[in-house]
Amino acid sequence: MRDYQWLHEYCLNRFGSAAALEARLPQVKSDAALRSLSDDRYLSLIALRVFRAGLKHSLVDAKWLAFEEVFFGFVPEKVALMSAEHLERLMQDARIIRHLGKLKSVPRNAQFVLDVQKDKGSFGALIADWPVTDIVGLWKYLAKHGSQLGGLSAPRLLRMIGKDTFIPTDDMVAALKAQEIIDKAPTSLKDLAAVQVAFNHWHQQSGRPLCQLSVMLAHTVNH
Asked: How far apart (Å, rounded) are the C-alpha atoms in residues 57 and 55?
């Protein structure tokens, strides 16, 4: 694999200037900001990620005020008590996206948030304290304990939240293949570990967050 210096120079050449490059790169929230976000906002973001999956984001976002209303502002203690009959009634509400599997995930994820709250004090504490040097471990934790957070949903959720993470998009996977870090999309523990090691190396060399390195790497693929 190439070092960070190559990656930086490649992106500078592609975008023409350091300012143009920086304007393309995402920012992360501080640990304090992640910790201060309330659990109802975390549940709302989890639900938003679940409903966005496979759907046009603007369609979901346009209906989100109605989702906030029918799910009691995503207060976990209230949502976790929603019955199957209540969810069936929501299937008749034209203001929201009527997908029963996704609707069922919301009270399940409310219970997940409550379980984390009991263990860590808040969901934000879990997110803030998880080391980015093992961000794939957080993906696996979210996928295992949450509902409908498998695949790319966990890293995409973390990007929405502002937690530092890379996302194995098609372009990034192609770039990782070109660097001979992996030879296929990283789904196995071995491949995910190899990608994490590579990103940790670039992070140590550059001091840049993983999300910025992820975007830079994706831009090394010819379009």
From this structure: 6
CA pair distance 13, 5, nearest whole angstrom: 12
Tokens of 184: 């296929």
Domains of the chain: which residue ranges? Answer: 4-28+166-218, 31-131
Would the pTM count as exceeding 0.85?
Answer: yes
Virtual torsion, Cα 147, 152, 156, 157, nearest 10 deg:
10
Q: What share of the chain is helix, strand, coil (3-state, %, to 5)?
A: 70, 0, 30
State the CATH class of domain 31-131: mainly alpha
The conformation of residue 28, written as its DSSP 8-state character, comes to -
Read off the amino acid at residue 205: Q
Query: Distance between alpha carbon 72 and the CA centroid of its chain, in Å?
Result: 24
Average pLDDT, the chain: 96
Model confidence pLDDT, tens digit, residues 124-170: 999 999 999 999 999 999 999 999 999 999 999 999 999 999 999 99
For residue range 54-106, what is the model confidence (pLDDT) as tens digits?
999 999 999 999 999 999 999 999 999 999 999 999 999 999 999 999 999 99
Task: Tell me how far apart the alpha carbons of residues 98 and 90 are, in angstroms, rounded to a whole number.
Answer: 7
Closest CA to 77 of 36, 116, 110: 110
User: Is residue 40 classed as helix, strand or coil in its secondary structure?
Assistant: helix
